[in-house]
Write a structure and sequence with these properties.
The protein is α/β, with parallel strands linked by helices and 221 residues long. 26% of the residues lie in helices and 32% in strands.
Length: 221
């Protein structure tokens, strides 16, 4: 199996460090992993189709129409895509086609990086990705995301934990982990991972491992 990791954008999300964590997970699952630091790899949809999985780690940047054309076509053809936090769902704020494919977009993290909050696993949704994983807590950015109602949500977090004007609306469960389809391709997202050490938490790391395996082209899980 072949995986392509793209890393870049805002350095505060530790794209290099996160890519090494993800490379380690993938190599242990027998992936041949390539890491690139340019979005021009998205220009050639046919070349992208040689990969089984693409892992974007690229926050708060810009993407050209041609680059978006390439990656969307590759995923539609069956190449899997799986990512986390701002590296996938705060990658290209101006590109609604990217957001349509990934299934969501970050809009806020009240309290910034010092919030302790709980990840609640959906117990009534049968999925290889969350089977046997229990609820757990993390201290990090609690992502408030706008999401596609067609997503299959596998985990949520309860807002508000930290106060703000949104608290006037009362409590709400906001998606943390979801899957979706894009043509023949599988899409996996996990909003955890402001810094790479988030994946020192066993449950967070296991969610990514299973998400990679689920999204990979030809996956049987």
């Amino acid at each position: 199996m072949k995986a392509l990791i793209t890393r870049g954008g805002w350095v505060g999300h530790e794209p290099v460090e996160t890519s090494e964590v993800f490379r380690d997970i993938l190599v242990k699952e027998n992936f041949d992993v390539e890491i690139v630091e340019t979005l021009d790899c998205f220009l050639d949809a046919e070349a992208l189709k040689s990969y089984d999985l693409v892992v974007p780690i690229w926050t708060m940047s810009e993407i050209t129409k041609e680059q978006t054309d390439g990656i969307l076509a590759a995923v539609e053809s069956g190449v899997g895509i799986a990512g986390n936090h701002g590296g996938m769902c705060d990658a290209f704020r101006q590109d609604v086609r990217w957001q349509f494919m990934t299934g969501g977009q970050w809009v806020a993290h009240p309290g910034n990086a010092g919030v302790t909050y709980e990840i609640n696993i959906k117990k009534n949704v049968p999925s290889f990705i969350v089977n046997g994983i229990n609820d757990f807590k993390i201290t990090s950015e609690q992502y408030y995301v706008h999401t596609d109602p067609a997503n299959c949500v596998l985990a949520t977090t309860r807002f508000p934990v930290y106060g703000g004007p949104h608290a006037a609306n009362g409590s709400a469960d906001v998606p943390v982990v979801w899957t979706r389809l894009w043509g023949k391709g599988r899409v996996f997202y996990n909003s955890l991972g402001h810094h790479a050490d988030a994946f020192d938490i066993p449950e967070a790391r296991e969610l990514m491992r299973r998400g990679f395996l689920w999204a990979t082209r030809g996956s049987k899980v």
